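Sample intake sheet
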Amino acid sequence: MKKMNEEENQKGQVIDWETGEVMPRVPEYNKMSLKPGIGANFIDKFRSDVFPNDYVVVNGHKAKPPRYYFKRLEQQAPDLYEYVQQSRAMQGVKECEEQQPDLGARQKVLQAKLERLQRNL
C-alpha cells in the first residue's frame, strides 16, 4: 500500500454530510514487523535445515519457504543463496522437460483411435 504524503493528504478531504464539516483524511498506518522480521530467529537457527532442501514443514506438509527467508539468506550467506537459486532454476528446467509430450506415443494413440473407427460402405 502506498502511503500518502502531506500534499496528497490535503487533496483527499472527508466531508461529514450531517454537519457539513470538511476534515482532513487520516493518513494510512501499516503495522508490520521490520527489525528483525517475525521469522528472523527461526531462519537464523534452522537455516541448515531449510535451505539446502529448499522447503519447510508446515502442519506436516512440505511447503516452499517464505520470500523473507530467501531475502535473509541473500544477506547472510550469498554463496548458499546462489546455490539455491541455481538449483531452483535447474528444477524448473527439469520439470519443463518432463511436461513435454512424447510425440511418438501421441502418434501411436492417434493411430489406434483411427483404426477403431469403422466406415459404412
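Comment: Strands lie at 13-16, 21-24, 56-58, 61-63. The helical segments are 6-11, 40-50, 67-76, 78-99, 103-116.
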